[in-house]
Design brief:
The chain is α/β, with parallel strands linked by helices. The chain contains 10 helices and 8 strands. Strands 1, 2, 3, 4, 5, 6, 7 and 8 form an 8-stranded mixed sheet that branches. The chain is globular and about 50 Å long.
Amino acid sequence: MATNDFESREIDPRVPSAARLYHYYLTGEPVFDADKLFAERVFARFSHLDTWAHHNREFLGRATRFMVEQGIRQFLDIGSGLPTGGNTHDIARESASDVRVVYVDNDLEAVNRAHDLLLQQDALDATAIVEADLRYPDLILDHPETRRLIDFDRPVGLLIVSVWPFVPESERPLELMARLRDRLPSGSYVAMTHVSLDDAGAEIQRQMASAAELYDETSDPVTLRSRAQFAALFDGFELVEPGIVYAPDWRPDLAVDADHPARPCNFAAVGYTP
């Protein structure tokens, strides 16, 4: 895709978006009535989706802290969604006050809310929100705000948490990831998650597949992928221990509920560029 193919996506309160739905799963706060009505239909098919969303969010926090411990001081958070508790810059700056963060999302509601929050926090000198899309990596990497805050001669922490499911195979996700990887300097890290049915029980697989089908009615249809397909996104990276695991199992801070139905529905890993 050419960089100039990207088109801004206007807010449509009648059609739910992935960013607004994810925000509802995390907070219970609907942005528009259509989001709540749709989310309740999804919960009727898979009642554990809020736990699944929290597994993603908590992994992002742990991965961010891990990267800060490795000396990362600049982050690119693609598909950051609507700001809520545990935003990347808040987490990172608990340990390092000099961290710089560029958020990226293609949902205008997410962009507007993030900008308002950063303005209220007086954080725009070291933090920015860019309206862009994972399918246009060069637009993200060459955006003036990215260039203002990210020095690509120094290691970068790249976060792509629960975003690849909204990129269909027709968009060639492996090529997109390779373009991002090839722009990362040595010593960079990437953290990613992906919904998957590979290891779930038969009934949970049925429920999750049924819930995913509903997303065809949203602005962001879902593509389910296998463990092997998720692993392929890390080609060219060295996986950090414990490798590809379920999201709540990646270096947990607390004991993991091994029997929770949502646990095996989400793969996560962190990779490193040697």
